[in-house]
Write the structure tokens for this entry.
Amino acid sequence: MTDADAVHRLLQAHRSIRSFRQDPVDDALVDASLIDALQGSSSSGNLNMVSVIKTRDEGLRRQLHTLHGEQDMILQAPLLLTFCADTHRTRTWLAQRGARLGFSDLVSWHVASFDAMIIAQTAALALESRGLGICYMGTTLFSMAAIAALLDCPDHVLPVTTLVVGWPDEAPAQRDRLPASAWIHDERYQRPDAASIERDFRDRDERGKARYLAVPHMAEQWQALGIDSLAHYYTSPIKYDPDVFAEFSADIERALRRNGFLA
Ligand SMILES: Cc1cc2nc3c(=O)[nH]c(=O)nc-3n(C[C@H](O)[C@H](O)[C@H](O)COP(=O)(O)O)c2cc1C
């Protein structure tokens, strides 16, 4: 098998896993995956301004469960990996060498958080290649400051994303993606017109709606809130409510200010 075949097969096999066996996850296997991930990821300035916190402790996981909106996987998965943007270590190194201090601004936040996301995704692939299952926890962003405090992060260290990790106890179907025509542009951005939106979203609208309505409590919520399409669902109070996002955005701004990334 060529490398391209192996990577193709790995990518096609990706599924977010939300149900895990209770078998332990060997620490050496996790560290090998993380070390591969850092080596296999490009890194801005090769500064490696990232930290990952491995959490296995049940007490901590219980507290993280609350901070992650009580998503079951936090309790079920034996391991949580919290990826942090970290300019603290670099700043400490600068100070120790008597160099001018830096990396305490919005640019550095982006540089470090992009590195953290890149490494998280490479780690996800490295873990999946070893048969482990993962699911991202987007809720990291919404509880950034509280997770940082719980995990003893100093200033200039903020969690960006979390992976729950464990041996899969489910084999979900592959989830659809937007077709190539929706997002791959030649030379210049081609604005979507009404017809292309219809074409590119039709399957997703139908499949997504059917998937949610197949879950009894979801079907009840859709009916109670008068939701009749996937688009209406996404910005409804039970998914990505813009008013709630506005509050979370203000929280993120406060966290960046308090942790030294925003003046
Ligand atoms: C940044 C990010 C945050 C996510 N947050 C969550 C989450 O909080 N809970 C969850 O169940 N899935 C979460 N997911 C998983 C997505 O729902 C999933 O990747 C998407 O539905 C496609 O499914 P697939 O990964 O199985 O292909 C997240 C994915 C990403 C990339």
